[in-house]
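Blinded run. Sample ID left blank on purpose so nobody reads anything into the name before looking at the predicted structure. Input follows.
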Amino acid sequence: MTTDAVPTTPHLAAADEPELVVAPATTFVSLHGSGRPGTEAFHRAKRTVRTVERALPPARRVPGAGAVVEILYRYPEGSVPVGIADFYWVNPVDDLEYRVLAQVDPATTDEELATAADGADGADVELYTLPERLVVQVLHRGPFADERRTLAELGSFAAGHGLRRVGDHHEIHLDPFTASTPQDHLRTILRDPVAR
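Blinded prediction complete.
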């Protein structure tokens, strides 16, 4: 499928209904993790990437990215293949592998990252760039437990266009949250790279 007729979306934007768009190339401070989302290790990784991102020179911080934290999720090799709609409900969630992300300017250097990480006790962070890619996405509003319905809609939309997921499931958390944050008003972009 050619992307010529597909609109490019701003990185931090999605509609309330499923849509097919081109997501732009984006650079991040990132940190690997594994296991169930919501654990202390998961929240510590979120805090670490935000702290390192804030320790970068001001010119390397992205206006509007603020407190946004993003996560790429996948299952290890050998897991049962999953699509968009059933991503969290086929394999044990404890088996998830993830990459926590905080957007930075693409001109950020390894040296700038090393200095910021050293001062923020973020020794394991690295720069990571997602290329421009064709995605299906939707804005989910409310608790994470309700994502099942939203992902079912997104999966149906992709299937209706003859598309399948071809990479990591991407969640963009537009609102900051901790383990104790009420989730009723949280906004999360659910985004999956796709191909025929």
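Unblinding after everyone has recorded impressions. The beta strands are 19-23, 26-34, 69-74, 97-104, 126-130, 133-141, 164-165, 169-173, 187-195.
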